[in-house]
Amino acid sequence: MTLDATHPPVAAVLGYGAILLALFYAAFSLAARSWLRLDKRALAHHIVLYMLFGPAGEEVVNTLWRHVSGTPLWEYRLYPIHGGNISLFFFQIWGIFGFYTFLRSQVFPHFDRSPRASTLLVFGVEAVMLELLVNVPYYLIFGSHIFYYFPANLGPLSHFSCLQVIPFYIAIAITTRRLNAVQEAANYMHLKVTLGFYLMVIAAYILVSPT
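RESULT FIELD:
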């Protein structure tokens, strides 16, 4: 398996991410019928949680899938590391996902906190849609995937996402919802220490066999 060695300039990738953040903020503000006020503490905790559990989960899930099926479930094409399981731009990719879910929790708080299994399933399907929103425009602009899925079960949108990742995103939703609820209940006490610990874990993980 050969990873795509061509990448857009770093500034272009960062700019693309900034545009997505602005569009998501505008869309959720429109849904709320007013500009959303962002709690910096809650937002920071939400985003860093996704930056922690996202790439760690990707490494576990893709490695297990490779051992079971003989081929990976996906391959990162944007600055791949860890054998293509994750991207060097994990902070932007998962930061965008964390930002999106934070905004959703502000606009639809009752839905976001629902314990129903059906709600978690909706989160999993929503994550597939979010991958499409991130990956398809990137492909149209830069001519390459951020991540390439090998299963083809989404018709013309196959390889931009796939249905097999739904359980993974449900697990991410359960974990992050619980930890965010704990921090919110504690009024984000010792947030700097908590975030510092998360960031050290992320750095240690990324530095282990980064290629």
